[in-house]
Amino acid sequence: MENAQRINTLVVGAGQAGLATSYWLTQHGVEHRLLERRDQLGGAWQDRWDSFYLNTPNFAFKLPELTYSGAEPDAFIPRDAAVDLFRDYARRIAAPVQLGTEATRISRTDGSFTVETTGGRFHATNVVLANGAFQRPRIPPPSSAIPAHVHQLHSHNYRNPQQLPDGAVLVVGTGQSGGQITEDLLAAGREVHLSVSSCPEAPRRYRGHDILHWIIEVNVRGPQYGINGYQVGSLPSPAARFMCNPLVSGNDGGHSIHLRDLGRRGVRLHGRFEGVDDGAISFCDDLAERLAMVEAGFGLRLKAMADAYIEATGADAPPADPVPDDPWLPAESGARLDLDRESITSIIWATGYGLDFSFLDVPVLDEWNYPQHTGGVTKVPGLYAVGLPWLTRHLSATLALVGEDARHVADHLARRGS
User: Fold this and answer.
1) pTM of the full structure
2) In this structure, are 126 and 204 located in the same domain?
């Protein structure tokens, strides 16, 4: 190991999770370095499209020394402002970041870690995995059967309508990215087809507050009142860690996205994507049932917890606005879509991401490729994780609560010593 740089702690990733971890490690006086594979700071926000606004209102910025105290707590900031914010944050906390350095292999050696990177080898006592949940864009395998003349890209690579060839666009998936990209294309006058998934709709504001206000309250204070639905121990299965976020947007001051409204505005709605057959896309013939399921999701989970929390705490909140019945359905949706006949020249796969710890040569991952841990402390001494969905609770990977998880990990690491 004569060529290895020795260091107490390496943090893999310099997005919001890595920077928050760095802040707390510095408070403890722990020698550390952040490895960032990108050439510039700004994390995964740099992978969002040009018109993107954060879905997180200003009031939910709760990183250490990065909390909002301005006059617009319910406002939302655009992508480029978010990127600049994190670059400035890294400078202010003097985060020791090494840019353009990707971890390629992490192994365990004699009670510590050997970390191979594109910038050399390190010998570290501790490693913190803070490389986030947006690592490996997922595209369904049937995409390989799409005719070659149809332009395909994942939402990860979408920037604006102008990068697409002329013609209609099929967007597959109705999580936040799928819904927001559909609106972006519609605003540009593009003809859009949209394959509906199972992500729930939700109101942007509920009972006098942005919906994220109630989600944060239930995450943080809910357990004091016996409301534990957003704690990791309440998950029905490991797969639930990857459930969709509510279908809302931070654009135009923040708003809900209602799929039937998109249909009324000209978007051609289809059921769940099934596969490809001889130049045609097949969908599950369940659009009516799927729209009803998407609309019911809020009432079944988030609404119930928010209402229970409001009642238990006596929070000052007006009654919920009535939800009007909306029976609208397209005249036809069809279970088959001929790409050429409909002049579809592009497909955007808004089908989410998978975790990627392929560089980790340490037996700590479960069958879902998720590190086995308790509160971010893995079963391997000296190996930690921060910034993953449902690390400790629903909002663990968000600006609102990742700082608290980072503090817990840094505290444990500092107590461990060198």
Assistant:
1) 0.95
2) no
